[in-house]
Amino acid sequence: LTLGGGWEWLALARLAWAVGTLLWAKVRGFPTWPAAVEAPPPELLPPPAPANAFVRFFATNDVAWVAAADAATFAARRAELVGAAVKKSLRAKYKKACGEIVAAADRMVLD
After folding, report:
1. What is the reported pTM?
2. How far apart (Å, rounded) are the C-alpha atoms in residues 42 and 69?
3. How many CB atoms lie within 10 A of CB 28?
4. For 71-83, what is each residue's pLDDT tens digit?
5. Among the listed residues 59, 58, 18, the one whose alpha carbon sits nearest the alpha carbon of residue 39
6. How confident is the model at residue 43 (pLDDT cuts 50, 70, 90)?
7. CA–CA separation, 22 vs 41, rounded Å?
């Protein structure tokens, strides 16, 4: 990924959060889920409108573009969403994802 003067730079400049930012992100059909912002692979640039962040979801390792309106910083909603009720089929993965993002946040504080 080069950040020269091409469209890659313009696409990344539109992103709402820096790489490494911990988020709660929502995609249709799933509950709000712990995620981290990653640099998108070049083949996925430019982002589809209105995407503002390329994220990797904790516990599942799925990736997606999400709009700023469908995400919030981890710290902003931590108390509300860690341990939130989700449907039975997702509970184990959600619990694992919450544990992973809490550990990641704790590591960031220590660094």
Report:
1. 0.83
2. 24
3. 5
4. 999 999 999 998 8
5. 18
6. confident
7. 19
